[in-house]
């Protein structure tokens, strides 16, 4: 299934509706255009349908979510993908003396098993994954480091998604990070 054909959630529709409300309040949409788009937003069934409603309002990097499966490339610099985006079943990643950061905390995984096909020379890959997502590094590494900070994927990992890092990493690093859990402290009043 193409990412555009994936079913949209109520939260995805609400995110688009909020952007349309902002657009009408700052004069980028007329009340009539707003009303027409809002009606169609709540009728939309797929992510591809939803992206059409904000395409003329925001630049690509500010869109509420991305549904392209294009490769990520970092040449002597950095590349980052975060926020609400669809992670394709196989995502090519290439870093030549650069850094790629993939934040999967709000991402939509197209399949339960995602493959990151990494080609890196002196490059770094930083993965931010939520609890319940298992990361497996099966690719070839030559003079490279693997840092699995907080590597335990959580209690539901057996049923959870898997992100497999394949390919070749030469003179670089892969770092997997899980967001820190918020701790609640009880204050004692004297």
Polypeptide structure, described:
The chain is an alpha/beta fold and 190 residues long. It has two domains: 3-62, no CATH class; 68-177, no CATH class. It is 18% helix and 35% strand. It has helices at 10-25, 31-43, 47-51, and strands at 65-66, 72-75, 78-81, 84-87, 90-96, 99-103, 108-109, 113-121, 124-128, 134-137, 140-142, 145-148, 162-170, 173-177. The strands form three sheets. Strands 2, 5, 8, 10, 11 and 13 form a six-stranded parallel β-sheet that branches. A five-stranded parallel β-sheet has the order 3-6-9-14-12, with no helix packed on it. The longest helix has 16 residues, at 10-25. The protein is elongated. The protein starts with 9 loop residues before the first helix and ends in a 13-residue tail after the last strand.
Question: What's the helix and strand layout?
Answer:
Layout: H1 10-25, H2 31-43, H3 47-51, E1 65-66, E2 72-75, E3 78-81, E4 84-87, E5 90-96, E6 99-103, E7 108-109, E8 113-121, E9 124-128, E10 134-137, E11 140-142, E12 145-148, E13 162-170, E14 173-177
Parallel strand pairs: 1-4, 2-5, 3-6, 4-7, 5-8, 6-9, 8-13, 9-14, 10-13, 11-13, 12-14
Helix pairs in contact: 1-2
Pfam families: DUF1707, LiaF-like_C
Domain DUF1707: 6-57
InterPro entries: DUF1707_SHOCT-like (IPR012551), LiaF-like_C (IPR024425)
């Amino acid at each position: 299934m193409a990412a555009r054909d994936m079913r949209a959630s109520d939260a995805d529709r609400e995110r688009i509706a909020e952007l349309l409300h902002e657009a009408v309040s700052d004069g980028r949409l007329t009340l009539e255009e707003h009303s027409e788009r809002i009606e169609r937003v709540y009728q939309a069934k797929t992510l591809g349908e939803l992206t059409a409603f904000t395409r003329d309002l925001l630049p690509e990097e500010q869109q509420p979510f991305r549904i392209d499966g294009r490769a990520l490339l970092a040449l002597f610099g950095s590349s980052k993908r975060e926020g609400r985006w669809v992670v394709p079943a196989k995502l090519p990643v290439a870093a030549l003396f650069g850094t790629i950061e993939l934040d999967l905390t709000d991402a939509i995984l197209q399949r339960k098993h995602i493959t990151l096909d990494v080609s890196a020379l002196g490059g770094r890959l930083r993965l931010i994954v939520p609890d319940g997502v298992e990361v497996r590094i099966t690719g070839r590494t030559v003079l490279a480091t693997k840092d699995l900070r907080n590597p335990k994927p959580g209690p539901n990992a057996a049923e959870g998604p898997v992100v497999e890092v394949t390919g070749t990493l030469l003179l670089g690093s892969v770092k997997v990070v899980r967001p820190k859990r918020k701790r609640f402290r009880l204050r004692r009043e004297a």
